[in-house]
Amino acid sequence: MSEILNANPTIRSAADLPSRRREPTKKTKCRRPFGLLSSTIPDSAYTPDPFNPSFSSETESSDSDDEVEPIDEQEIYDLIAPIQDPEHPLTLGSLSVVNLPDITIKPTDPLSSLTNSAATYSRKPPDPSLPVITTVTVLITPTITHCSLATVIGLGVRVRLEQALPPRFRVDVRIKEGTHSTAREVNRQLGDKERVAAALENGTLMGVLRKMLDGC
User: Which end of the chain is more exposed for a tag (fewer CB within 10 A), N or C?
Assistant: First the structure.
C-alpha cells in the first residue's frame, strides 16, 4: 500500500477495551478423615460427603458451570476486536473501528410473520425444536470519512464472524451512519451476498483478509 490514508489515527490502550473477566471457579474441598493412616491416602481418594447439606448446592453450582452460555455482544466483540487493520499494525478494537455499543444480537421471532388474517390460520406453527435464527449486527466506524478500505474492513469482520459463529447466526455488517461519505454504497456491497462471494474469489483480496485475521 503506497499511501497511508490516515497517518495519525486515534489509538485506544488495551486497558480501555471492554473485556469479560470471569471469577475463578472455587474448587470443592473434600472432607478428609483423621487417623494414623490418613496421611498415607491421597486426597483424590476422598469425595465430598453426599449427606452434607452443602453438597447439593455445590453440585448444582458445578452443573451450572458446565452449561453452555448464550453468545452475547461481548463475545462478538472479542471475536472481531483483534482483527488487524489493513493499513496500520493495529487492531480494529484499538482503533475504535469496532465498538461494543455498536453490536446488537436479535433472535428472529418465529411468530412475527403471522397476522390475524384468515390465510395465516391454515399455516402450521413454527417447529419449536428448530434453532431460532439470530441476527448479529455490527456497525463499523472508519477512522476517516473517506476511507477507501471500509469495504475491506467490513468484509474482514463478516468473514471472521461467519467462520466463528454457528450456522443459526446471520451476520449483518454495516458502516455506522454519519461516519463515511459513501456509507450507502459500502453497505449495499456488504449486504449483497453475490458481490461478497465474488469478492472473496479475488486472490489479492483474500491475501489481505488472511493477514487481517492472523491475530484472531
Answer: N
CA 182 to chain centre: 26
Task: Kindly state the cell numbers that stand for 66.
Answer: 458446565
Backbone φ and ψ of 138, nearest 5°: -120, 125
Q: Please state at what angle helix 150-164 crosses helix 203-212, rounded to 10 degrees.
A: 70
Per-residue pLDDT of the chain (216 residues; tens, 9 = 90+): 455 666 666 777 777 788 775 444 444 444 444 544 445 445 555 445 555 555 555 555 555 555 667 899 999 999 999 999 999 999 999 999 999 999 999 987 655 544 444 444 445 555 666 678 999 999 999 999 999 999 999 999 999 999 999 999 999 999 999 999 999 999 999 999 999 999 999 999 999 999 999 988
Kindly tell me the number of DSSP H helices and DSSP E strands found in the chain.
Answer: 7, 3
The packing angle between helices 73-80 and 150-164, to 10°, is 120
Question: In whole angstroms, what is the distance from residue 97 CA to residue 21 CA?
Answer: 22
Q: CA dihedral defined by 140, 144, 150, 156, rounded to 10 degrees?
A: -60
Q: What is the pTM of this model?
A: 0.67
Whether the CB-CB separation of 216 and 85 falls below 8 Å is answered with: no
